[in-house]
Amino acid sequence: MAIDSLKSWEAVDEYFSMYGHCDVDYVNEGTSEKIIRLLVDKWGQLNELSVLVKRKATIEGYVLGHVNSTLDIDDLEKLRDYSVSGCHIDNENLCEKLHLLAISALKKLHSFYSK
Hints:
Elements: H1 9-19, H2 25-41, H3 46-55, H4 58-64, H5 73-85, H6 92-113
Helix pairs in contact: 2-5, 5-6
């Protein structure tokens, strides 16, 4: 299974089960990019992730670990905004965690670029 196949939360879960142990360096950045694409471009499908998290708690840490300062500022800003105003899932805690991570990553990026 290639990183390019991460087009759904189910695919992320399968990938995590198979390759989560070797998610380092360039692989990690590629996975982060696919996860942010799901979060930002398919925000309406966030409940699928919420259901996965309820079944398998470790997937939450994996996904949240990929929301970081390697991502594009525009995507992080969208995630920050969506997670506050567009959280239409039963797991508001997940939205809150995504929001805090987006803010943290944005602060790091703004700090880096303002030097």
